[in-house]
Every structure is written in structure tokens, then in C-alpha cells.
Amino acid sequence: MAHEREIGEEQEFLNRALHALEQMRADARSMRDNALVANMRGVGDLVERDVVMGTALHRIDQLAIGDQPLFFGRIDYNPNDDGESPTYHVGRLAVSDDQLNPLVVDWRAPVAEPFYRATGVEPLGLARRRHVAIREHVVLGVEDEYFADANGELALPDDEVRAATEEGLVDGGLALGGPGALLAALGRARTGRMGDIVATIQGEQDRIIRAPLPGILLVQGGPGTGKTAVALHRAAYLLFTHRVTLERQGVLVVGPNPLFLNYIENVLPSLGESGVTLSTMSGLVTNVEVRASENEAVARLKGDERMIAFIARAVRTRQRPLREDVRIPFGRTTMILRASYTVEAVDRAKRRPGNHNQRRSALGRELANRLANEYHARFVREGEDVSTVVSELADQIRNTTEFKDALRRMWPRLTGQELLHDLFGAPALTRAAGKNLLTDDEMALLERPRSASLSDIPWTDADAALIDEARVVLGPRRRPRSGVKVNADAEILNGVDLDAYAGNVRQAALREAARLATAANEELDEAEFVTFGHIVVDEAQDLSPMQLRVLRRRDLTGSMTIVGDMGQATTAASSASWETTLRILEPRREPQLVELTVSYRTPEEVLDFARATLKAATPDLEPPRPVRRAGATPVVEGVSAQEFSDAVVRATSRELAAVAPGRVAVIVTESRVADIVDVLRSGGLDAIDPRGEDTRGLGADLVVLAAEGSNGLEFDAVVVLEPAEIAARGSRDGSLTPRGLRTLYVTLTRPTRHLAIVHARDLPPTLI
Fold this sequence. Notes:
This protein is of the alpha/beta class. Helices cover 40% and strands 14% of the residues.
């Protein structure tokens, strides 16, 4: 145990830092209140108020850390040439006293790096690293690690008693920072929400978090390596380091499903960053409500790269000349839009640059001008009509119902939803687009009944990626109106010298002028994509090639952090390799692939048990090295079919009692979720499907999860039911598949403490 003197020392410092933090909050509130009552006389005053208010509100938000510890560590350097030994406390945010002397440094600041990076081999100038345990403004304990100086000596106090304990840690020779603090953090009960790891970041994790911004960083990490937490902390670090650029360009975090996003949504706010966009892949495709799923063969086909050519062909099949002449009543006569005219006109339109909807306008203008010239030559030159300008005649012809109908048949203006609805609902269109590209059986898979309206269509995740692809080929359906453009000559800014203000103030002036103007900006068309300065993608191993293309279209600068584990690739259309991922993303500079090799969360007993399943599914991958033991060997219980339900209730009850007040998940195939919820409730257990809207979600003590949607989640205990069914995922005859085995590997590695298996069917060979 740490000495009372050291605890008292840190408590005294904590009280001082908390007082300084409260003073900083008071200053921010005062800035906000002064802006509220400021006397506004002109646009210049409005601009200043906008900037001051925005700064104050952002500062108040940054300083709101709730019940989280203000700091969690301290680093003491060896004496320098002047005999001084600099000391820094490391915490969630920077805190200074009223004289602006730093008390706590932000964990993302360069000076804090040694707290995470120092090892016995490379102490980085440190004499001591201290981990401080704080709860509700009370210091509970400290853990000190001492480093040798240049002479190989340790500066240990005479009465020093080491606080670190090796209990529960694997003796594997790993250099861990603050093993006691790490073990305590890993041993806490799950809450149903991911917490930040800012106090226990390890060296290999910190190197990834602080990697340079430019380019694509690929992070391969097995179960328990903290890859999700590392990705989120990297987003927070990049925002801290490149604040001006990324606050303007935006940061996007993409997760596999809404349940996962709910699980991670508190991490970035706990680190003081609330301006990050969280989304699923389908959520990036605007105005498409995903309400359905489809069988794996269809999902695999829709995610295939051949869909790029398929969509492009589908658009070209909607570009066709008229088969028959069209009569257009106009003015003093009836014009004839001859089918022969349209053959050459459509061919020329196809060769024009631009997207489908843009070229439609050119086709309409060409045909209308031809008819207008005919009308002009026949009537205007002979003095029989008062109209004299061909362009005016062409505009009038284009507005006739008959001409519009003819143009719609030749070259319809389409949205991505309309194209796919027509394509999958008309076998002739599917065959035309898929000829010599897809097999007859594959084209049949894509066919589905037409819906009464676009709002009734049961779109899927795979459809969303195809709609996004179609929007690129089609282009905006309508031409966006110009938004309000404000410049220094605009009336509202008369007398305001914008050049006298800094860049952010000039932008504030323009925003204020736009707010005061009467017109409003138009929203983006569906085919105009919002882009981001940095994109973080978790569980990237499950993305299809078509979904990766959706991601690439949101990339503004070529800066991405792509996180995943190819050993956990479980979706039907998964790209399943980093090589494919990079080929589709088309990096603008040399990408970097790094690997997280240490599992902090998943105990040794579980990783050893799951090892054979990983090797059978993905032979070229090695599991991560564990750092801790849970002290509980996985339990496998085989029962008869008649005993199965009772056995499930018994096993789940046992695990709930063993890990209380922790969380337990029962994991089964998707088709069994509802039945198992009923079985557990009949046995007196309060089980839920966390995807339900009226539930506590992952915050419930007991949840039933589909194996297919368990990626990235963690629980104190997990009960896996019928692993053979999970391992046969994607198989028609019940045989094991590599994807099924990878899904089983995912389910087996979700617990942080206990794993149990209940089965009535034969076990997969990898678990025997």
C-alpha cells in the first residue's frame, strides 16, 4: 500500500488544482455573461459578440469533466544541469493557477508523452512515474514506478514501499505502464458504455494515438487490444493538435451499427471533444432509411466491385433514343420530334463530359433548338409570327408537356433511389445492365417486387452503398440554387473593415450577415457529399468494397485512421484484406500499417481457448498476447435438446451471480435472439434485446445479442449458445465456414472475466 504521506501530498495538490479549475470556469462564465449584456450597436459589435460567446461556450464545455478525475498521473524528471527536477501532473485538460503557472498538463500535450512511453529500457529522462487513483475529488492511492538514471541508479526514497502488484498479471516480459492501475481499470465491472483509457494508455497504443495526421493509418488489432479506444483517443489527440484545421474540416467516426455507436458515444465527450460526427456507413447516405436485411448471397453480391460497372450500365440503359416520332402542338402548327433526330442527339449526349442529370439538360437544349430553328425558318422569316428569337422559341418548346414526356422517355432525370427501384423491379433492366457481367442466377438474386412509393421500399445496408454509387453517376437531380453570398460590398456590411479582423472573426462576420439577410441557403442535394478532414473507421474488416467507396467519397484530405482485425471479418461482403482496403481507398501518400499485439481486456484463459478457432479461420494471423488472467477457466456444458433451455437459464444465472454488479451477454445466432430472450424471462431472468428502443440497451445487466452484431462490444461474462450454429454461418448444409469460424472467434473473445458455453449440438472441432 502507498504511504499516507504520498496520498496526502497528492490530495493537497488535487485541492489546489480543483480550486484553479473552478476559477477558470468562473472566468468562462463571466465572459459568457458579459457577452449576453453587451451593447450591440452595429455589425462590428455583433461580430465581436459572436466570437466572444462562441469562445466562452466552447471553454465552458471543455472544462465540464463531471465526476472524472482531474488528473491521474505525475512524471518526475531527473535533475537537469541547474539541479532542478521538473514535475508535471498529467490529466484530462490543462489547468493553470491565477498567475498562469501550469498545474496540470493535458494528456495530449508533447510534455505528457513520457507518461505513456517511458520504459525501463527507455526512461525518456524520467526518474519516477506515478499513477494516482482519484474518486469524487478524493485521492485513494498512488502507484510509483522508478527509472534508472544515466548511471543506472534508482532514486528510491529510504522508506519506499512499491505499490504495484503482479497479482492477476501474466508473466510474459511485457513492459507495462502502471501495471497496478491497468489491472484495476481492467478489473472494474462493465457499465454498458465504453469508457476512456486516458489514464492507462500503454506505449504501443500511445505511438498510434500520436501518429502524424497526413495519410492513411491502418491499425490491425486482435480482441482486447484496445483498438477502438485507441482510434477514439487518436481523434481527440488530432483535434487537440490540429484544432484550427480539423474544427473547420470536421472529423468523422464510423462504426458498424447503431448499438456500437451508443456504446462508444461518451468517450470523446469525456475527453473534452464534442464536435465529432458519429455515423454508421449507411448513415452517411442521406435520405435512405435502412429498415431491412437480406440473405447473405444477395448482400455479398451487392457489395462486390462488379456493382460499379453494373450501376454505370444501368444508367446507360436509361439513355436511349425515341422509337417513334412525337407530335408537339406549338404555336401555329404541330412540330414533329423525329426519332431519327434523337439517335444522333442521344449519342452525342452520351459522349459529353459530366454526369447523367447534367447531360440531360444538354440533350433537351439541342433537340428544342432544332425544333425552334425549324419553326423560326417556317413562320418567323415569312412574317407569320411575332416571335423573333430562336432561344425564346426553344424555351417555350421545352416547356410543353409533349416535349417533357419525350425527354423523360429518352433521358429521365433520376435519383439513386429511383434508379435502384426501377432496376431491381424490372428484370429486363437488370438483364440489360448485368449482361456478360453477372450470371443469370446472380441477376435473379437482385430482383424484387416494386413498391408503391419510394418511401415504402425496404432498403438494406448494401442498398445504401449502391444508392451512393448511383448518385455519383447520376449527379444532382436538381440544380442547387445559389446560397446567400455576402461580401465586403454587401449592404449589411457597409462600413465594416473585414481586413482589420483575424480570419475567424471575418468568418463570424459573414455568418452574422448571412443570418440577418432575408434569404436562406439551400440544403445540399443528395448527390453532393459532405466531406471531412479526418475519418476514423472502426471494425473496418467488415466493410464491403462498395462501402469502402462510400467512405472514400467523404474523404477531403486523404487523412484516415482505419481500425480492424481481419481475424474478425464476419460479413458476407467483407473485403477481408488490408490490400483490398487500400486499393479501393486509393491513398494519396504511402499508407502505414501498424499492429496492436497486446490484449489488455481479454484474459489469457479466454484467448487460449479461442486460439484454435482463429487459426482454423485465418491461419496467417496470430492472436494477441494477453497481460492478465481472470482466474476462471471457460466452462463448456453439453446437454440434450430437452435440457437445453434449463441449462441456459442455469448457466446465465451462475454468471450473473459471479460477476455482479457486472454485465452478462448471452450470444446466439440472429434467428434465436427472440426465443432465448423468452427462455431467460421464463426462467425468472430480466433479459432484453438491447436493440429495442424502449430498453436500457447495453446498460442492462443481461442482454441477448446476435453473434453477427457483437463486434467491438465487451462484457464481464459471456454465455455462448450452440457454437456450431455460429460457426456454420453462411453455409447451406450446416458445415463450418471460415466466416462462421471468425464470427465464433468474435463471440468467444467478448468477455473480460468469464466465458461459458452451452450446447446440445456437437461442438466445432476447434473447441474440443
